[in-house]
Amino acid sequence: ASYDMGGHDTYMHKEICEQPDAVDRVLRGRIDDRFSTVHLGGLNLDAREARTIRRIKILGCGTSYHAGLIGAGLIESMARIPADAEPASEFRYRNPVVDPDTLYIAVSQSGETYDVLAAVQELKRKGARVLGVVNVVGSAIAREADGGVYVHAGPEVCVVSTKCFTNTVTAFALLALHLGRIRDLSVTDGKRIIEGLRKLPSQIEEILKTEEQIKEIAAEYAGAQSMMFIGRVRGYPVALEASLKLKEISYIHAEAYPASELKHGPLALIEPALPTIAIVPDDDLLEKNRAALEEIKARSGRILAVAHQPQAKADHTIVVPKNEDELDPILMGIPLQLLAYHTALAMGRDIDKPRNLAKSVTVE
Ligand code: AGP
Fold first, then answer.
1. Is 108 in the pocket of ligand 1 (CB under 6 A)?
2. With 141 labelled, which of 23, 114, 223, 308 sits at a CA distance of 20 to 30 A?
């Protein structure tokens, strides 16, 4: 790649640090304060059509699939439309029921991932309406879709996605707000979300200032054989993405589980040698998440919490700024990008070009 590293040692570090500007870009020019809504020019979906949507199915691969899982949660909570995400690679081989009242959304950084493109083409062939949430302008998936939202993350060179993931989730928040305001989200709630969105860039700056603390924690974890990532509801896709990122660049084995599922099996793994990274937002599930930390501590497991306030049961807490509950997942993933980064760096890995992986997989 020919882009300047701008004084950073790796593209990944540069791209992590670019996130305040990147998020600013995805929001710019799209917020309409008069109606507490957003304007998405390329959507190609008028209000009357938007009201007829009965379900939303989001398709993507890898990190983009994880962004889609958070996106589905944002759409359900703001627009109250049943929504879920599925790996595009699976969807296209299970002969899915394609329903005319379902809106399909394809998510892709590159816009060229073959499994996603093929899913879009199969859907279009069956007459479905497909939108794209895509980074690369004019890419194959963007062209194939009926409309969509560009995520404006800018060029991403590192094989693992950081800023594009954050921008994709933010783009989903805009889409959810847009659909919500056409349906049942009140002006007041719209305003609340808009204020939250506007706080994101400076809150990301705040998080980036914790890098030294995260580096020290990473030095402790760099020798681990395996790590467990847990979260609940909104926090679970954050855990999935953080565990993928760690695997991709450090080659440490990692698992992600809903914290609520620990007692149904994975608790058997907990012992001092298996650190747990827990997503603990200050929301309606705080007490439930704390109970999970207690379960882990009772089995002498080491815990790193990403939370809005220090957690007594955790060995370390990375404290992140609070936003609106719906938008917290956007912020909570960011310290874990830095954790994966510094863990991999401490292990001497080739961070921008991890073994066996390509930036975009344009073949089957
Ligand atoms: C690198 O391997 C990525 N983390 C990978 O999971 C990627 O997200 C996936 O291949 C999808 O790529 P796309 O967003 O360009 O479609």
1. yes
2. 23
Under 8 Å CB-to-CB from 16, ≥6 apart: which residues?
162, 163, 208, 334, 337, 338, 341
User: Does residue 359 have an active-site annotation?
Assistant: yes
- Neighbour tally for 52: CB within 10 Å: 9
Q: Buried b vs exposed e over 130-160: b needs ≥16 C-beta within 10 Å?
A: bbbbbbbeebbbbebbbebbbbbbeebbbbb
Ligand 1 lined by 168 (C-beta under 6 Å): no
Q: Are strands 303-307 and 316-319 parallel, antiparallel or unpaired?
A: parallel
Q: How far is the CA of 76 from the centre of ligand 1 (A)?
A: 24
> Could you give the ipTM of this predicted complex?
0.96
Between the CA of 59 and the centroid of ligand 1 the distance, in Å, is: 12
CB 61 within 8 A of CB 116: yes
The whole-model pTM stands at 0.97
Q: Is 61 in the pocket of ligand 1 (CB under 6 A)?
A: yes
CA 287 to chain centre: 24
What does pLDDT average to in each consecutive run of 10 residues of the chain (364 residues)?
80 97 98 96 94 97 98 98 97 92 97 96 96 97 97 93 98 98 96 98 98 96 95 97 97 96 91 95 95 93 96 97 98 98 95 85 82
Q: How far apart are CA 79 and CA 82, in angstroms?
A: 9
Question: Cα(first)–Cα(last) distance of the chain, in Å?
Answer: 24
Find out whether the beta carbon of 312 lies less than 6 Å from any atom of ligand 1: no
Supply the DSSP string of 310-344, one letter for each residue: --TT-SEEEE-----GGGHHHHHTHHHHHHHHHHH
3-state class of 353 per DSSP? coil
